[in-house]
Structures are given as C-alpha cells and as structure tokens.
Design brief:
Elements: E1 4-8, E2 11-20, E3 29-34, E4 42-50, E5 53-54, E6 60-63
Antiparallel strand pairs: 1-2, 1-4, 2-3, 4-5, 4-6
C-alpha cells in the first residue's frame, strides 16, 4: 500500500483509517482523518496525498 497523508488548513491531520469503503463499488477508498484542534474557523483547504499523487485543488472543509 502507498502512504496516505492528509493536510487540513495547511496542517497535518492524523489519518485514522484508509482502505476499502464498505458497501461501495470496488476501487473506491475511504479516508478518515482527524481535523487538527487548532484550525481556525472558516473554509479551509483539504489536500490528500496517496503515494506521489495529490488530490485536486479547490477542495475545502467548513470549520465552525
């Protein structure tokens, strides 16, 4: 398996799980990550990296 990393708002997030997504078609992966406690409120960027491949830009998460 390739390494999986997640950054939220430019900060490293703890990856809790990555692997098969239950009840989804083959090839879909699920990634669970913990949002860092010190992230400021607002829309923050989310970046997922699997091996050398990075997710598309423009994905955000609303933080209250």
């Amino acid at each position: 398996m390739l390494p999986v990393t997640v950054t939220i708002g430019g900060r490293s997030a703890e990856v809790l799980y990555y692997g098969a997504a239950p009840y989804m078609v083959a090839g879909v992966i699920q990634i669970n990550a913990r949002v860092p406690a010190d992230i400021a409120a607002g829309n923050v960027d989310v970046v997922i990296k699997v091996g050398n491949n990075t997710s598309q830009t423009g994905v955000t998460l609303a933080v209250k």
